[in-house]
Input
Amino acid sequence: MLRVDSIVTFYGPCQSQFDLSLEVRAGEAVALLGRNGMGKTTTVRSIMGLTPARSGSIEFHGQSIRTFPAHHIAKLGIALVPEQRQVFPNLTVRENLVATAANRLKHPNPWTLARICQLFPILAERQHHFGNQLSGGEQQMVAIGRALMTNPRLLILDEATEGLA
Output
């Protein structure tokens, strides 16, 4: 499904990744582990086209995506739950979730608001609360639900447990 081969990434003149490779097959759950500053977020940002890799290859379902812009990568079916959640603070839980609803016709069982609320029942109770009124855990549920509402083929979570008690 996803193949990353020997990518090299820079922030300005400073090289931050050196020949990183990984593979994710359909149905797998893969964890990229390491201490702070080891390049986990840079890897995610490179895959998503937010910090483009200067060399190497990134393929999704056999298609090269290394030079694609982030919005094109998202349209191909890769969804990102970014670190620090980035929930829209002035939108309600419901508005946060439906804001990203996409690809509904291409899926036999698309993610819906009802399915997200089944997965995270507290969100049904909180659907009229604003994003900035939620706990860190509730914000993380919204961020995951928002990503699922895009009906992704691949879901990437960056720092999935950050800020949780």
